[in-house]
Structures are given as structure tokens and as C-alpha cells.
């Protein structure tokens, strides 16, 4: 299942965890406050990323304006929290919806905090399609950053092995000197290089899987698989 707001693919374990957490904290105003703040912050990041993709000339000014709006909203939420306005948070997070531990049709997305439904309407489907395109774009960014990390990691590792070769001192009869500066530089560079290569490979695999999953999701949307 997918969140129609942010596109997060949610498995059964995540659904059960979210339901259990919502069920236990339905009247916990601090929990609801934190959930709503997380939702606001996620929306801010989404809008900022959208502005960045559009390459607007006034990108920084728009982001600053959005940040100010976010801060004002958080201040308002803090005031509601201080006033102990539980009903406000329940209404904002749809806690009033009939949900329990056996309900699969209604639960809060663990990433963006929005209410997720299985019975998607036309508006939800369009929102899910937009979210899928955003996730595909993120997957491509994962692959790009992974490729950069792979190249940098490989270069550092190669340079590190060059320093390893320099650790065989002629003054020491061509024997490896593990106390020289070159050997320590070799250790540091190889460790950083291996870490970057590992991170890069994970990023590339994650990006490819994300693109594959969300391209399939878009195909299902185009084939009316989500229409009732």
C-alpha cells in the first residue's frame, strides 16, 4: 500500500505499528502535537524541493517565506498545546475517524502523518501519481549521488594504495614500515574510500529499486488498478 500524500510504500508491519501507536496515544496531546509538527515539516520540505526542481530565480526568497510560514504554524500549534486543546489536534489528524487495531482502511502515514485510506478517490489517485513521480526523481538522485560516491571512494582507495606502496621504505630494506606517515595515510584513505563505496552501492541499489517500484505503481495507476 502507498500513502497518497507522500508516496511512501507501507508494508503490513508498518501499518500495524502505526495503528498500535495511534491507538495507544489517541488522547496524548504531546504525541498528536509531534505528529502534526512532523506533517508540517514534511510539507515544507516537499514544497522546497518542488521550488528547487522548478529552478526559480527567487528560489531562496520563496524558501525563506515558506520557512517563516512553517515557524508561524509551529508557534500556533505550541499555543494550542499550551492551551491543552486536544480536540483541535484530534480533528487535524483525523483521530475522530473510527480506527482500532483491526482497522486497515484508516491509519496515519509514519512518514508524513497524513491519514491513509484504501478507498482512494480521484483526487487521492492524482496525488499518489504526483508522489510517485517525486519518488522516481528521488531514486534518480540516489543513483546520481551513489555514482559520485563510488567514483570518489574509488579514487581515494587508489590514492591510499599508492601511499601503501610508499610505505615500503628503501631505507628499511624495502620492508613495510607500519610506523611511517604514509602507512597511516593509507589506512585513513582506504577506510574512507571503502565507506564511500559501500554507501554508494547501497544508494544505487536503493535508487534502482525505488524507480522500479514507482514505475510499476504509475503503470497500475494508468491501468486504472486503483479505481473502484
Outline:
The chain is mostly helical.
Characteristic terms for this protein:
228 residues, mainly alpha, two-stranded antiparallel ribbon, 6 helices, 4% strand
Provide structural commentary:
- The chain is mainly alpha-helical and 228 residues long.
- It contains six helices and four strands, in the order H-H-H-H-E-E-H-E-E-H.
- Strand 1 and strand 2 (115-117) form a beta hairpin.
In terms of topology, how is this protein built?
Blueprint: H1 12-24, H2 29-54, H3 59-82, H4 86-92, E1 106-108, E2 115-117, H5 122-166, E3 168-169, E4 175-176, H6 181-222
Antiparallel strand pairs: 1-2, 3-4
Helix pairs in contact: 2-3, 2-4, 5-6
Arithmetic mean of pLDDT: 82
Give the radius of gyration.
25 Å
Number of helices: 6
Secondary structure: number of strands = 4
How would you spell out the order of helices and strands? Answer: HHHHEEHEEH
Strand content: under 5%
Question: Could you give the distance between the termini?
Answer: 15 Å
- Helicity range of the residues? 55-70%
